Amino acid sequence: MSDFPGWHGTTIIGVRKGGRVVIAGDGQVSVGQTVMKGTARKVRRLSPGGFDVVAGFAGSTADAFTLLERLEKKLEATPGQLARASVELAKDWRTDKYLQKLEAMLIVTDGTDLFVITGAGDVLEPEHDVAAIGSGGNYALAAARALMGTDMDGEAIARRAMSIAADICVYTNGNLTVEAIG
User: Strand pairing partners for 57?
Assistant: First the structure.
């Protein structure tokens, strides 16, 4: 098992600008040096309790789906309270022996709040209204931060930042899924 090359791929970005939040994700999944799939959908819209939430994930797909299901349950228990549900998920993720083994990260938004949730128990609200995760996350983050002072709207910034990340990161492609809320 130590010879397994590992799964790589995914760049997810969240941009809050002009009263809207956009989450965009690429479609690439790679194993070692091989692109296994170029059209994966890693950004999802959830509607637990009648409140829309958009989530993007990086990491193991099965692990991410497990976390999204848990987040939906937390949101159903606390409708309209994304911050509370996110903190509860992060606490469970950090303390539960099963969840501790999950390898993924999430960016979530309800159109107002924007959070990065990690397995270390972090619920981070990004500075400068931009969050990015995944293999090309730092490239997308830098590009989006540079574009925030322009006249571009949040979706245009997210799309351009993802394009730049795809040009630099071999684990990121240009097949985007984009969801906006707010």
Answer: 106
Chain centroid to CA 167: 19
The H-or-E segment that residue 117 falls in is strand 114-117
**Contact 79/49 with Cβ under 8 angstroms?**
yes
| Tokens matching residue 121 | 């128990």
E strand or H helix at 168, and its extent? helix 154-168
pLDDT tens digits for range 101-130 = 878 899 999 999 999 998 888 999 999 999
C-alpha 77/C-alpha 121 separation (Å) is 20
List, as one string, the DSSP characters of 1-55.
-TT---EE--EEEEEEETTEEEEEE---EEETTEEEES----EEEE-GGG--EEE
β-pairing verdict for 7-8 and 11-17: unpaired
Active site residues: 10
pLDDT exceeds cutoff 80 at 149: yes
